[in-house]
Design goal:
The structure is a homotetramer of 156-residue chains. Chain A is of the alpha+beta class. Chain A has one domain: Thiol Ester Dehydrase, Chain A. Chain A contains 3 helices and 5 strands; from the N terminus they run βαββββαα. Chain A has a 5-stranded antiparallel β-sheet with strand order 1-3-4-5-2. The model of chain A has no long low-confidence stretch (mean pLDDT 94). At the A-B interface, strand 1 and helix 1 of A face strand 1 and helix 1 of B. Strand 2 of chain B pairs antiparallel with strand 2 of chain C. Chains A, B, C, D: InterPro entries: 4-hydroxybenzoyl-CoA_TE, HotDog_dom_sf, Thioestr_dom. Chains A, B, C, D: Keywords: Hydrolase. Chains A, B, C, D: It holds the Pfam family 4HBT.
Chain lengths: 156, 156, 156, 156
């Protein structure tokens, strides 16, 4: 399935009625491409802190971003409110790959789809650690099946 | 009255459940001081666009910020949600002074109080113009009486 | 002296050729008012970290912003480069008031003047502490005399 | 060649001594992942406006971002200054793919490598247009050969 066909039903967790900001719009009058990554960071960390007991300033393990990407399908303009949608597409031993969908509140077509990879590390030494406990339990609840690239290739 | 005693009842318009963002927190683990001005800009422009028919990219008149200030009373930390509160403390011929209160959702003590002055200008030539029509009508609905500095001085 | 007459000679420390960013411009095609506070934060903390041995993540004392303000005189547009200029207008026991001037590289007229108050606190308990050692020595080097409000009033 | 082995010699245009900002650091004390995209936007648009005569508010054609990605190899901390490096890895009829390298001033190891795709459109109707004139000439000067994914696969 193409990313631009994503629906809300392809995701597991939502941050609804998320208010865009005046300064999100750039001089072309729409939300600047870099701002979407602030949205991705927000829904991921809001989930980790409110649902997985992560306390960024005190937790022994934290998630560091090692890769991210975004595809943009439809422009958004402040003062739109958004429904941010989150899924986990891969949960490894110490890394997790998230997919984020950006929808305008009240509209169906997805505006952008992002991918974001966290590696969990010791907050002190920053060496990779296994994802365990409440964080693993929390992330497992967001896991979805996505057609892999190989699957897509095999269907060509 | 001291600014730090501001209550929600001192304001006329609200943007509730405003989601802070991961990147709002600076390395001291709380919302960075500069970020509050993004909040102020957001509630003011959200009011102007949704209640006063301002269309920033097409309106003949736009508001430019010529002065702003903020006092900070209590730190805020992502992932808190906020109730932003707006009032107009002075409505002149071509300029308007806003006051913004920042409250955490579910808490009573004000976290910060901002002041923000817009001068309305022609979007093309950027010369000051009189505030008229829907914008004046909209702003009048937010006007509140605030003790002036002279009043405060006279009571000393 | 009016703020809009400030010259580079009214300041003591400079961060020259400071590059504006694409996302600094808002949809009116000029640097957004809130962005100036990011500039103020940057020159102040760049001075504290490079000249006063402040290490934000480890220093026992840190500066918290309790008040800030800005006056805007001339718009700036990305991709301009700026000369940020810093002075200390008041150095108290535990607080310091900075003034920041924003100039475009190669131009003389000041674009904006900001004021910013830091209270130094224990990084752990966040209680005010006396400004001492390298931080006081560093800040003293930036102190300038500014006409006080009382002086200005007495000359009316 | 792996992205993390990129050197300054792999790029064609530089924005040196680029000052990071206080608010770029997140609560983990390093530059937030989303901020890198602001850097990418800045070097690309600084090149387009200063070398290719693009005037964002008035040019008939503008570049819209349709895809971006970033890999992160080494953390950066404010107040570091950066050398941003730019190349064009694909120049199509109406789209261009940039690669951006982020280096700390005075250090050799690349900190992050970004990819960014602009589609040029009419600024009015936002329909794709051919990249022509000074913009094409300017972009051609940044073109570099990069091993394609197929090449890499064939060498395995």
């Amino acid at each position: 399935m193409e990313l631009k066909a994503r629906l809300r039903t392809h995701y597991k967790y939502f941050l609804n009625n998320f208010q865009t900001r005046w300064s999100d719009n750039d001089q072309y009058g729409h939300v600047n491409n870099a701002i979407y990554y602030h949205y991705y960071d927000t829904i991921i960390n809001q989930y980790l802190t409110t649902r997985c007991s992560l306390i960024p300033t005190r937790s022994p393990h934290i998630g560091l971003c090692v890769h991210s990407s975004s595809d943009y399908f439809r422009p958004i303009e402040f003062p739109a409110t958004l429904d941010l949608a989150l899924a986990v597409t891969k949960l490894g031993k110490s890394s997790v790959t998230y997919e984020i969908g950006v929808f305008e509140t009240g509209k169906e077509d997805v505006c952008a789809v992002g991918s974001f990879v966290h590696v969990f590390v010791e907050s002190a030494g920053r060496r990779p650690v296994a994802i365990e406990g409440e964080i693993r339990t929390g992330l497992q609840q967001l896991v979805v099946e996505r057609e892999s690239d190989e699957d897509k290739a095999s269907k060509l």
